[in-house]
Amino acid sequence: MGDWTPPEQRFSELPMRLLTALVLIPFALFAVWFGSWWLAAGCGVFCAVMMVEWCRMSATPNEVLLAGLAAVFGLSLALQNELISWAIFVAAMVLAIVSSQRSTESRITGGFGVIYVFAMVFGLFTLREGPWDGRLAALYFMSFVWASDAAAYFFGRMIRGPRLLPKESPNKTWSGAISAAIACAACGYLAAGWQGVEVLPWVLAGVSISVAAQVGDLFESGLKRRFKVKDSGNILPGHGGLLDRVDGLGAVSILATLTFLSVPGLPALLGL
Description:
Layout: H1 14-34, H2 36-58, H3 63-76, H4 82-99, H5 104-129, H6 134-159, E1 163-165, E2 169-173, H7 174-195, H8 199-227, H9 242-262, H10 266-269
Antiparallel strand pairs: 1-2
Helix pairs in contact: 1-2, 2-3, 2-5, 3-4, 3-5, 4-5, 5-6, 5-9, 6-7, 6-8, 6-9, 7-8, 8-9
């Protein structure tokens, strides 16, 4: 969303960020395009890595066991058996809560981490495999989130201006946030033309996606600030951890899935 980095260092991370994106984006597109077990395998890997990052960031014990349960949870989504997925989720919740330190706060932190990580992969898988054109919906929404991130990064760093939330994430600016929303509105306009439907619903969807992605990003920034860490991990050069990279997409996937399930006529309105 932009930052207050000195001008000479403002785009110093760009080459590494682009290189990481060139590796990560094709992997994500491949998994989403083919769906089913391919996507479940990707969800399993992502869920396991994010669970490890959460455990290390929050000092939640038993990271290996929790990561194993996270991987199995991701794979279980392809079975389309809610009972199995729920059982794995509950097992991970119990393990995280019981094995945490005796303080109530640490137990809540451990349990919340499981909800947070599992919900993001569940949201993406359900968005892709839901009773609508899931492949198209997931690809559109992923591209919108990437457009939002790119616009916020470039325009926020070029324009700068007032900080968005100085206490939670001091580097993010209003210029980056507004640029991201405008970019997604433009993406919505293009999507409406491609789908042959009314423009307004897609433009509103684009802005909503940008806002949700930015809220997810800010929420993750708040968590890192609480745990006094700069990044959730270091697996992605130029980005930090996997949680740092997918926080916005995770928030969008959860919101989109809940919205589509709550408003069954919305996918058709978007041509999905």
